[in-house]
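Before a colleague's protein record goes any further, I have to sign it off. Thanks in advance; the entry in question is below:
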Amino acid sequence: MTPSIAVAIMLAGGEVTGFEIKMFLLAAGSAILVGICWGAVQEWINRSHARNWPTVTAVIDSVSVAFIQDNAPRYALDSSHYNATLTYTYRDPEKHVGDYSRSFVKKEDAEAWANSYKGETVKVHVDPRDPTRSVLREEDL
């Protein structure tokens, strides 16, 4: 018996029902899922908040494509991909740098997408409390 189930039995004061086990597993699974997806959730929260920030003009100065190797076990699905990054500069009033990344399965698609934006002028949302923080939203490309 795992320690967490033993603790649940002791706290409950008796036998654990099937419903309690299901609820425990649901809560544990939810916590694991949130932990795994936290980066994506945090990114979504930042982009959602940024839509109300003031905008400034930025120029995409450089683009890059990097291969991201998946380190998952062999029995898991391979999630290796190519990460295309657009690096932009803006002034507010000092010069600042930001970036935007997107994932691709094929290297050629990543390079074509990134190269299509090199030198382009875009609109970025700047945090009014911290002008070093900015977000380039996909809708603004």
Observations:
- Strands lie at 55-68, 81-91, 95-104, 121-126, 134-135.
- The radius of gyration is 22 Å.
- The first strand starts at residue 55 and ends at 68.
